[in-house]
Input
Amino acid sequence: MLRIGLLPQWLLVAAAMSAVLLQPMGSEAQAAAPRHTVNLTNGSSIQGFTSTVRSRTVWSYLGIPYAKPPVGALRFKPSVPLDSPIGNSSLPYDASKKPKACYYWPLSPQEFEKTNPALMMWWNNTEMSEDCLYLNVWSPTSDSAAGKAVMVWIYGGGFFGGSSSLEVYDGAVLAATGDVVVASMQYRTGALGFMFLDDTEAPGNAGLYDQYRAIQWIHENIRAFGGDNSQITLFGESAGAVSVSYHLLSPYTQGYFRRAILNSGSAIAWWASESRSTGWSKSLALADLAKCRPGNTRDGIRIANCLRQVTPELLQQQTWNAMSDTALFFDVPFKPVFGSDFLPKMPAEQLRDSKMNNDVKKADLLLGVVKDEGAFWIMYALGGIFMHKNGNWNIPFWWGQPLDQQLNRDYDFLVQNRTGLDMDKDPYNLVARYFIVNNTHLDSLVTEAVSFEYQVPSKLFGRTSWTAKETLDALDDLTSDRSFKCPTVDFAEMYAQMLGTNGSNSIWMYSFEQRSQMLPLPEWTGVMHGYELDYVFGTPFNQRFGTEFYNFTTSESQLSDDVMKFWTNFARTGNPNQFNSSSLSGEAWPAYNLSDRSYIVLKSRPSTASSFRIGQNLRKRQCDFLRYQVPNIVRQIGARYDCSSDRRSEPTMGPASSANALQGKLAVIILVAGLVQLSLL
Output
């Protein structure tokens, strides 16, 4: 049973927010398009199709199998390579259709999402199946000797959702614009992809093994598609960015790529991994729900064999119910586990000690965040309080104080008639209820320090009046930093320390701050998690996306052009600059280093501007506060108690609290995928 009544609304969209693909042509048009066959060295023959994208021919190959179907005895296990060719010279494999998505939950959107294209763009658009291990390739050439740089996309989705088949992730525009080969893959998520029970039958990290198998396949075969396997860049967003950073850490994948791009996430995010023991406990809980623990057995092999008989739909539906009552709000039900062959160490510890142990891949790194990472997640976290009776999104009016006479009457009416909503008038109490320090205790010293640092408006700090937007902005900043911005910024800091000053690799950081003017969401939602991907994949130049979802202005199209050139320049050379254009100066983006921590602000620029704004020390004070000062406070709190039984389980609530009892140890600091969004989430 879900612990928060409003949680399903977040889950439905977060799962949605992980996948984004851009397909210039529908399936009927693809079937009629000119065909082209690629022959691999193992005897496989793969037939794709051609299309014209931005006045250039692109060769597309969709739904290529890269591993055996993970069904039956292979469920929960690491993916297994194919042992025979696909297609042959007389009957090539048909690679003209988007692949099926791996199973994830939820299975369908809610009614209010169906009417909003900005939310529907993250929802799965193909059939779900356990037979889902397929990849896609888009190439700007049919010449197998062309040696183009290769970009391999890994979607987000909080490790419980996502699909490479979404419209926003279509690689055709990026391939045509940047003259690179683009590839993407499906991988297992949720319990099917990340359940840990036994080192042989369900060893965990199956979804990461899927990614590894796909990357390995691409490395071995991409030359046939015109790519250079010595110039492979992995790029991903949210849980996809976390995955890319894991491949920097994993001994399995390090030799198969050269560069990495992380959009809004890293391996050191609090929601990104867990120990084997924590994963084991969740798996036992799922087994209980699926009636696969006769006699409360702890035999992992026996449990895994039983769970292989359960339908994938039931497994995904029960996934969230397997989380403990003390689970973090927005936490990931099944996630990568460390202490395994694939991830031998806790990610933060491995990064910290990497200069001594030399066990992290040294690569050129491009990474960054969007301006308002947290807004999307707060809306779905607190669900119904943002939903007006007409179906529109609104900031809760009682987040602003004081209320006039009419608003007080409206507030009293809602309290009496809309049960289950958090109607607290003091924003401090939201932090007190939803911000978590660790899994053992909350304390008012922490919530007060965090609320003060993030300027959460409250009478506790002498405030007598504030607007609802001020409250939202403070919670957005806190959520953004805790779950996305600081894990990204801190990863850059630790990676730069590992590289030192004498190496040949460089780091590049960005802050994406452009809100699409035609985005059909309220202005106050800002620049939300995941929506920079429109610009990375060139959706302003994708007519199908514009028809189904929304369009872009001329200046936003120019920004997308710039972003694609930055990303593809980086994939080719390790440097995002080097424009072959007079519209931008040659060195528009300075490298990140520990002396000034420079980053570029990606936002639409006037046609007369020859460069983007450059900033320094992105969120450094806030991230240092969360990384160092909050743990310092927690240590001081720990020193006050002789034993764990003395620790308080609830924080001191602020003045004029009308809050319900503390609902477990929850957090407004959210996750991801994306979609999701999950897609963001």
User: Anything to note?
Assistant: The CA atoms of residues 293 and 519 lie 48 Å apart.
